[in-house]
Structures are given as structure tokens and as C-alpha cells.
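Me: I hope this is not a bother. Any chance you could explain this protein sequence and its C-alpha cells? It all follows right here:
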Amino acid sequence: MTRLVRQAALHCAPLLLAVPALAATPTPDETAFRGLYRELVEIDTTLSNGSCTRAAEAMAARLKAAGFAEADLQIIAPPERPKDGALIATLPGSDKAALPILLLAHIDVVEARREDWQRDPFTLVEEDGFFYARGASDDKAMAAVFTDSLIRFKTSGFKPRRGLKLALTCGEETAETFNSVRWLLDTKPEVLKAAFALNEGAGGELDASGKPAVLQIQAGEKVYQDFTLEITNAGGHSSRPVPDNAIYRLSAALTRFSGYRFPAAFNAATRGYFEAQSKLVPADAAAAMKAVLANPADPAASDTLWKLNPGWNSMLRTTCVATKVDAGHALNALPQRARANINCRILPGTPIDAVRKTIEQQLGDAGITVTPAGEKAVVGPPPPLSAAILDPVRSIGASIWPEAVLVPTMSTGATDSRFLNAAGIPSYGLSGMFHDAEGSHAHGLDERIRVKSLLDGRRFLHDVVKAYALQKG
């Protein structure tokens, strides 16, 4: 999950690592899933040395062995990027007029060096109740579960009313190089066309005793946008300083900007998140959450939440922060140019240009230009949290984790859902895979997922997808 910030969904109190229970003997059904998961995880799909196409072909072979026709399986890649293939598999529905449900998971992974890891990152290891490997969680867990679900639907003879479309895609972790979701939407939009999509972006939280406490559903994510600040000057010899110095002016402007906070604002997901969390967190956090819900402009409550958890502040408002500066051209010369990068994570629905104008106003120096930088931001509305979406999640979640509370959330980072939402395909983060406070180590060393969390998530996603596929309307 590129840039995905999990800490916004974590409680203030640390969660303890639970001692895993002894595993029961796997059923033949579970054994088959474990084999599929192992095969997928152990295929290197890094940008440097790996191949998404190889992983896509392996999963396509398993689907074909389960009875999927060749016509329902496609591996699609740009001609110039043959290793970046995406697998598209379809299980047609009985209602030909109904758009399918898209099951999206990326199969590319972040780089991993063997010398840095305790274990070989491309060998799946089961140890002390966890699976360890690069991609064990992000995002081959969901990719394996969705592939396994389609196999089980096919072999059991399940007939969905609404069709199911599996998309195992490449490039989510390196979107600046290539991203197959964006590429498919641009070049072959029919391939991903769907009523709505399920994707990564939300899991679940374990409490201090290791029991499931919070089941999350992600509805929307903030918009990523960089801005370049620049001021130029005539410069000159450093032995003859002048009052107008590009570095000083840029520094002063950044200092002025550092004191500004964008106003707090709620959408359906964030309001639901804080309403639910206010019943679960310690008293001081709960009081601040209730105060902000009653009055988003309450500065004291906002400050309290920010101090307790920076992720909460990020969920409340657009945030922009200076991340890089570059100034001057010689040690013995006055600077002719000074630049800075401001990185913004913008609330869904907020115009990019409005944020740019706010930055200009807060800098307070007309000589500093502010221009968008990097790839064009992808802007889309947050998907609606309707009863049709929430009811199956709530009922099936309660049957598996009766004490867990369903909490909607908004990602402060970014997933491929940003492309789908912008294209008019509502996309929800939903996995049912629970983590403790230490998390999955995604993108880091010794990435992991609890064995029980993976198997429970497999059961949950299979049942939720089946319920969605049978819905009328």
C-alpha cells in the first residue's frame, strides 16, 4: 500500500501481542488455499528483479484448473512492459444487465534485500502464529483470498446474480513508474468497469488481549499533491550582502505557513469513524472527539487529538507540510534561486487550485510562485456508505467477530482506489484481516500477517463477496 498511513486507525493505548493458539489441522480446502498463497508470495514481483506477469500466469493456471474458460481469463500488459501483466478473470452473473463487482488486489511488492531480513523475504515462513515474507500482507494476502474465492465459487457451482471480476494488478507500489490500474482505465476502461470495487485499505484492530475490537471499512482517501515554491533573485557576491535574500524570504514565508491549519471538515466516513472511536478510546481522546464532532472549529479539541495521534489530525483536515528545500548555487555567492516542496494530502472533494491559492495567501510573499508538481493529482468523491454496502459487512462481521465494532475510515495515504473513485467506480477498502499495534511491517523488514487473521479474512471476504453477488437492485 503506497503511502498508506495506518496509525490514524490505531487507539492511543498500546496493544499487546497475544500468544497464538495452537493451530488445528488444516482442512483440505484450507490446505489448497495455503498452497496457492505460498506460490503467489514466493514469486518475486519487485520492480527491480521480479515479474507480475509470472505471478498472474500462476494464478490464471489455478483458475483454469478449477474450470474457468480461456475466454474468461486475460493477462494484459503494455507491449513495452511485458513483465507488468495484470490478470483479469470473470465469473459471469445471471443478470446480464447488472454490472459486476470488481475484486482488486495488487500483486507487485516493495523491494526487499535478503541481507537486511531475518528470513528470506521471498520464502514464506510460518513461525509463532505468523506468516513472514515480502507481500505476505501487502497485498498478496488479499490477492490470494480473492483468487481462492473465485476457485471455490466455480468448483461449488455458485451462480451469482451479479458477476464477479478479479483484477490482480501491477505497479501500485511504484505508480510513478507504471500503474496498471491507471493504464487500464486510460486504455481499456471496459476491463475494469464495475458497479463497485473491493480493495485493500482497511483491516481490523486487536485489543490488548489480542481479541478483535474494530472491523474497518475504508470509504475514500485523501488526494496526494506536491507543490513547488520558488523565488528568484539577482544574486551577487557574498561579500556584499543585500537585504533582499532569496533564502531568507523563502524561509520566512515557510515559517509563516507552518502556523496555518486548514479547517477541519467531515465526510460520511470520517464522521462515522470519530463517532465510533469516541466510544472506544480513553476518556481524554473521547472528550476531544465528541467536541470536534459537535464543532469542527473547536481549536482546543483539535489540538488534543493532534497531540494524542497525528493520524487523527490528518483525518480531520487537509494537511500540507514542507518536505524539501533547495537553495543557492555557490558557497561564496548570494542565492539566485530558492525552492521548496510542500506535500499536501487533501480531503476528497477539495479543489486542488483552492489549496494552491491558500498556500499562496499564507506564504504572504507575492514574489514566491506556487505550482503543482509531479504527476497530476487524481481527484474523486468518497464512495457512499449505503446500507447495501454496510449491511453484509456488519452482519457477516458480527458472525465471525461478535465483539468487534464496525468503523468506517478514510485513508490518509493512497491506494489504487483513488483511480477507481475518480473514474466513477466506488471503491471500498475491506479485508477483515486484523493486526495488533505493531502492524504488518508492510514496506519494512520482516513483513508479516497473523495466520489466524489471514484465515479469518479469507472466510469473511468469501462470505461478503457472496452476499454482494446475490443482492438485488
Summary: The first strand starts at residue 73 and ends at 76. Confidence is low (pLDDT under 50) at residues 2-21. The first helix runs from residue 28 to 41. The radius of gyration is 24 Å.
